[in-house]
Every structure is written in C-alpha cells, then in structure tokens.
C-alpha cells in the first residue's frame, strides 16, 4: 500500500515538475516575445511609423510619344494602385503564396502547424516557411539585417509582430498593394510594375493570366525561376501557379489547359544605365534633372532623382531615335572598315609607340600610378600586363579576352566616333540625340561636351554676314590663291586640282562648292568683327578666334551650339535654344514644371537674308558638295545643307536644314592627333553626310513622319530670286588674262 502511495506521489511530483517546467518555458517564451515587442532585440516600427512609410521610387524617363526609355534609381520600383492589379494577378498571388489570406489576421496558425509538422516530424524541407503575405510584407519593408541561425527565431517573431500591426493599420487591399509594390523580383527590380515592364514590356494592368502566374512564380526563388535565365524551370513553376489557381476555384480547367500551353513570350527590357535606347540623351537628361532638383531643393522641396519617383517627359521621338541609332551602326561599321584599310599596317595606333604612351598619360589609371610615385617606365610596364577584359569588338558585340591596358588603349584609339543631333527649329524640341558609338566604352558625349573645329559648316555664317550687309550674292570673287603678308604669309587654298587661275565665283557658287579662297575673301569684305557678332547673335556663345582662318571653320563649337545657330535660318533670323525636357511630374502624375523654348527676341539677320541663304544652301544639296543626297540616297525632300571637313581631315561634318528639321552630324576620332588618312574617306560628304542621308531615307518610308518630310520652304520673293539670278562662274576677260601670271601667287594685306 505504501509502495503504491509512494509511486503515486512520485508521479504527481514528476507531473508537477513537468508542469512547472512547461509553465517556466511558457513564461520565458512570453518574456522573450515581450522583450522583442519592447525592442530589446532591435527596434520594431510602431503603428504610426507603419502608416507613414514611403517607398523609394525610381524616376522614369519617357519620350515625347510616351515610350519608357530609362530609369534613375537605387531600387528599380514604380508603385501602382490596387485598381491597376488585374484580378488574375491577385488570384495567382493568393493561390500560391497565402490561400487563407482573407481569413487570418497577419499570422496563419494553421499553416504554421502544418509546416512545423511536415518539417520537424516528416523531414519535408519543401513544405515552405508558413509566412503569410502580411509577414512577407513586413520582411519587404524591414529586411533582415542579420541572417545567422541565432537570429532566425527573433526575426520571425519580429515579422509576426509587425504583421499583426500591419493588419490593424491597413485593409487587406492595402496590404496586397503594398506587398506587390515592394516585393523583389531580383536584379534590383522591386514591385510588380517594374517586373512587368522588365520581363514583358507591359504595364501591370495589361498583363495576362500566364504572365501574372510567371511573375508570381518567381517569388519563391527570383533567380532560380527567372524566365530569362531558366525558361524551362520558370515555365514549370508558372504552370504550378496556374494549377493552384484552379485548385482555389479562380480559373477553370479549360483555362489551365489553355494557359499552360502558351509560351513564356518574354519581351525583356533591361533598364540599364549603359544599355538601351538613347543612353547619351538619358545621361544629359540626368544632368539637367540634377541641376533642376538642386534649385528646387534650395526652395524647400526634398526631391531626389533616384528615390522620388519623378516622371520626366522628354522631347525625344522614339522611332526617329531608333532609326538614327540603326543608321549609325550601319554607316559607322562600314566607314570603320574603310578607315582601317586605308591605313593598313602603317596605322599610327600600330606603329607610333610614342603616341600610344602619350594617350596612356591621359588616362586616370596612369595618373593614379604616377601619383603613387612610379616612374613612367614602371607605369607602362604595369599597364602592359595582361588580364581578362571584355572588349568592344566593333558592332558585332563584345568579346572576353586576355589583354593589357596598353592593348586596350591601342584597340580603342582606332575607333571613329560620332555625334548626331536632330532639332525641330519651330519649337526647339530635340528629336534625336546620338552622342557616340558606344556609351559603355565611350562615355564622352560628342553633342554637349565635345568642342571640335567645324570646318566649312561655319561658312554660311560668313556669307550670311556679307549678304546682310548688302553685299550681293552675285558679287564675284576671284578663286585665285593669295598669300596675306600681315598674316605671316598665310595662303588658303582650294581642294582638288581644278585650274582656277582665271575663274571668278559668285558667293552662291563659292558656298555650294565650299571654295576656301572665296570664303576668306567674303570674310574680308564682311569684316571679322561683324562675322563674330553674327555668330553670337545666331546663338554661338563660346569664344571664337578673331582670325581670318575663322572663315574656314577653325573655331571649335559644340554640335548643340551649331544646331542652335542653324535654327536661325528656319525662323527668319531668330535662333531657338534646343530643349530636351518637356515636363516633370511627381509619381502621382501631377505636373511640377513645364519647359518650353522661345525664339530669341532679336533677329540676327533679315528675312530676305535668310531666304537668300536657304537658297544658297539648297544649291549645296542640288549641285554642290552635298549632291550625293540626291544621286546616292535619292532624296527628293526640300533640303538645304552644308558639308565640312577640317584641316588634315580631322573632322567630318554635315548640317542639313529642312523646314522642320536641323540635323547636325560630326564624325572623327577622339584623339586629335589622328585624322582620316585621305580626304576621299574623311570629307564631310563621305563620312558625315550618310548619317543624315540614310536616316532621312528611312523617314521618307513612314507616313507618320510626313509632317517633317513633306514640307517645303516658302517660295523666295521676287527680290530674292532676282538677287540670285546670275551665272555661278565668270571667267576673266581677255586683257585681264593677258596681264595675269597664273604661276605667280598674288600677295596682299588682309583688311578684314
């Protein structure tokens, strides 16, 4: 009897101990939860903080025709409203991630028990984590800082507490909205809108059920189920999501069958800083935005280009830009081939070791090593060591290979570069901006940053000055070469081998055939100061040399400034500043500011002078140095223009002018020491003009551009027609020829 009682007492004692132990564990658990709740394991956001959180939103860049072409961001995210979520997106998310979403209040105990049973007792590691969408939202908003095993429980409890607070702060719709706007899709892409744009080039509101299932399927493993990298795995995961939708009565069996048979049909678009359309333009927009934001923030705003979700609507025409980039690749790849062949094995980048070392000295790597105390020889030795590099191999793509920094310098030095800009002179809108051949390798923008000698494209400004001063375009100037005594014997000559000793050209003929001796004599008659003032009044603000050689374009001007000057011809003497941003809105599409260019108040020249100059530049296209626009490219548009080639064939230029377009193109090398090997390859008509000719040819094929391609210049007045009504060339008379020695160069003082 005593033994029975003793045994019973022991059992009761054991049960008491177990009960007490459980009670202590429970108390410790409660204390643990409480300690987390009061912030001993790290701060937990309050309900007030949760109700005021803000997304870091990417700013978006749009073309004038509303095509998204780029983003500026720390995290690629564009929040959208619940109303923009198609029903099948919500169904896909709930079916695969949180079937009881509408039934729980942030924590799904049933799912936790299920996961715990399968994981602990059955050893099923694929049973999932049991986290609700609300818990996942908590993790999205407040990412885990430490991921070691000792913090897993703390992090889970934190997320549960935050989830409970979120459920008390937001409705279920708001939780879904916040979740879909914050969830990561990998590759620094956050939110469903950015993912839809990246993988399917469509907005969230327009994604189909299979597309929604694909994106939702990625959430389990954003890399492993990335449809671009692992299409088969992604397809299988998508179909699993579709089956879950069917199991939850969101779609029918017929729909599952139909959707599961569809291809992924990706339209992947990487909004990468270096890639995509118009990278040079986007960088220029970014620079302008940073200046604008700095000005605004001085007035008390708090804008940030990378986090404020601004929407930047630009002037760029998407299709025109696309055609311009395609044409650039087509022409520059052929020209590059001709350029390298023309030099052959004697190319300066192959033979001139001193030049390559001179170019190396300009690099940031050389300067850094020099600062560290290394000698020139030590630096060159260091730069000559091979390492794995990704090399731009012309337009056939990049290539991984072993190469030294000196090899890279030699390789990249040989590439011709370009800048191409199209502006609507009626409103200043920039329609096309090609700043170089490859933004990743050549960040330097040849439109807004580079100043180059403009060659004969400056001559129209010389002739404009002369005509506006009353000098008749039918004034004849002798083509003979003159040595100017007061200019150290400077003696400008004409290209070609034509015998011009007894020839006199009208100004129209001198301009259309780009005759140097005539341009200098027109400058002398017009006066250097007057020409420089005309250039300034036409919108060229940088300082130009006060020298007679300015007539031949020795002044260095940016492409964008030259374009601005030429807009004067389309606006009766008034230039307009090129503009690249139309408006800026906040993330709710409320307009913050609009930008419009206005014509300069003062005319640089008279309406009549403008008409005369357009007719003279039309002759350049119809019968002069730009005649291949007609003969080679078959363009019948009303076009005026001017070619340009600088000394030693360093720079090739072409400016085209139509009633609604100013198009400026430059081609050359970034290293000023190297030019084209000969004029036939490097002249403006061969190297630069085709970029306009090929582009305009493509525009002519598309009716949407008729407003640009079908327009004609106003018919010149009778006065203008009479002013130009003369023979282009006049030969010296008998007696003048009799007393002139064609073999003796005339000398005189320049009086300009």
Describe, in short, the structure shown.
This is Penicillin-binding protein 1A. By secondary structure, the chain is an alpha+beta fold. Helix content is 45%, strand content 12%.
Give me the number of helical elements. Answer: 31
C-alpha end-to-end distance: 137 Å
Let me know the largest β-sheet: 5 strands, mixed
Give the amount of beta strand, in percent.
5-15%
Rg is: 36 Å
Poorly predicted runs: 119-128
Average per-residue pLDDT, rounded, comes to 89
Structural class: alpha+beta
Q: How are the strands ordered across the major sheet?
A: 2-1-5-15-16
- What coarse outline follows from CA principal-axis ratios? elongated
Helical residue percent?
Answer: 40-55%
Task: Write down how many β-strands occur, each being a DSSP E stretch of 2 or more residues.
Answer: 21
What does this structure look like?
Helices cover 45% and strands 12% of the residues. The protein contains 31 helices and 21 strands. The protein is α+β, with helices and mostly antiparallel strands and 752 residues long.
List the keywords.
31 helices, 5-stranded antiparallel β-sheet, 752 residues, alpha+beta, elongated, 5-stranded mixed β-sheet
């Amino acid at each position: 009897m005593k033994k029975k009682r003793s045994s019973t007492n022991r059992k009761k004692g054991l049960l008491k101990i177990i009960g007490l132990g459980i009670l202590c564990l429970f108390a410790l658990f409660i204390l643990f939860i409480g300690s987390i709740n009061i912030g001993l394991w790290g701060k937990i956001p309050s309900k007030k903080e949760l109700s005021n959180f803000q997304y870091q939103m990417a700013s978006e860049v749009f073309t004038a025709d509303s095509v998204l072409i780029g983003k500026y961001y720390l995290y690629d995210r564009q929040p959208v409203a619940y109303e923009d979520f198609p029903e099948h997106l919500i169904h896909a998310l709930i079916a695969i991630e949180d079937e009881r979403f509408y039934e729980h209040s942030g924590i799904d105990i049933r799912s936790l028990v299920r996961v715990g049973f399968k994981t602990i007792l059955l050893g099923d590691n694929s049973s999932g984590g049991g986290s609700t969408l609300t818990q996942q939202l908590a993790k999205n908003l407040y990412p885990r800082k430490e991921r070691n095993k000792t913090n897993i429980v703390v992090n889970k409890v934190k997320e549960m507490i935050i989830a409970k607070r979120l459920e008390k702060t937001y409705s279920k719709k708001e939780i879904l909205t916040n979740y879909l706007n914050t969830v990561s899709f990998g590759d620094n892409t956050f939110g469903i809108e950015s993912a839809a744009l990246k993988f399917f080039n469509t907005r969230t509101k327009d994604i189909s059920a299979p597309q929604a299932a694909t994106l939702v399927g990625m959430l389990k493993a954003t890399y492993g189920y990335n449809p671009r990298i692992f299409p088969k795995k992604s397809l299988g995961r998508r179909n699993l999501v579709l089956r879950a939708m069917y199991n939850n009565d969101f779609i029918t069996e017929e729909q599952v069958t139909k959707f599961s048979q569809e291809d992924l049909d990706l339209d992947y678009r990487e909004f990468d800083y270096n890639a995509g359309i118009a990278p040079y333009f986007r960088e220029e927009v970014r620079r302008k935005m940073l200046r604008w934001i700095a000005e605004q923030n001085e007035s008390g705003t708090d804008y940030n280009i990378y986090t404020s979700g601004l929407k930047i609507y630009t002037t760029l025409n998407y299709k025109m830009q696309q055609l311009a980039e395609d044409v650039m690749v087509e022409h520059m790849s052929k020209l590059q081939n001709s350029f390298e062949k023309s030099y052959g094995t004697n190319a300066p980048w192959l033979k001139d070791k001193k030049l390559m070392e001179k170019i190396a000295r300009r690099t940031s790597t050389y300067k850094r090593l020099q600062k560290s105390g290394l000698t020139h020889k030590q630096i060159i030795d260091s730069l000559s060591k091979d390492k794995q590099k990704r090399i731009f191999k012309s337009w056939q793509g990049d290539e991984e290979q072993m190469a030294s920094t000196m090899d890279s310098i030699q390789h990249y030095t040989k590439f011709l570069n370009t800048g191409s800009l199209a502006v609507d002179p009626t409103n200043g809108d920039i329609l096309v901006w090609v700043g170089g051949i490859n933004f990743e390798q050549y960040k330097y923008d040849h439109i807004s940053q580079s100043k180059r000698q403009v060659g004969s494209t400056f001559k129209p400004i010389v002739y404009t000055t002369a005509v506006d001063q009353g000098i008749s375009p039918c004034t004849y100037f002798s083509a003979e070469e003159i040595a100017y005594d007061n200019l150290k014997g400077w003696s400008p000559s004409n290209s070609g081998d034509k015998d011009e000793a007894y020839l006199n050209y009208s100004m129209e003929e001198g301009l259309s055939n780009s005759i140097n001796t005539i341009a200098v004599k027109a400058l002398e008659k017009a006066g250097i100061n007057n020409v420089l003032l005309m250039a300034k009044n036409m919108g060229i603000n940088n300082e130009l040399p006060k020298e007679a050689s300015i007539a031949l374009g020795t002044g260095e001007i940016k492409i964008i400034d030259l374009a601005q000057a030429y807009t004067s011809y389309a606006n009766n003497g008034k230039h307009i500043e090129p503009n690249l941003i139309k408006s800026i809105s906040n993330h709710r599409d409320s307009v913050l500011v609009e930008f419009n260019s206005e014509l300069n108040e003062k005319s640089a020249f008279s309406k009549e002078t403008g008409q005369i100059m357009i007719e003279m530049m039309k002759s350049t296209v119809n019968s002069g140095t730009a005649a291949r626009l007609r003969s080679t490219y078959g363009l019948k548009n009303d076009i005026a223009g001017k070619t340009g080639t600088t000394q030693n064939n360093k720079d090739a230029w072409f400016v085209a002018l139509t009633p609604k377009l100013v198009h400026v193109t430059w081609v050359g090398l970034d290293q000023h020491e190297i030019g084209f090997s000969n004029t036939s390859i490097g002249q403006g008509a061969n190297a630069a003009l085709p970029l306009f000719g090929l582009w305009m040819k493509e525009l002519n094929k598309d009716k949407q551009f008729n407003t640009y391609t079908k327009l004609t210049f106003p018919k010149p007045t009778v006065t203008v027609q009479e002013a130009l009504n003369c023979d282009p060339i006049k030969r010296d008379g008998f007696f003048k020829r009799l007393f002139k020695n064609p073999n003796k160069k005339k000398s005189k003082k320049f009086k300009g």
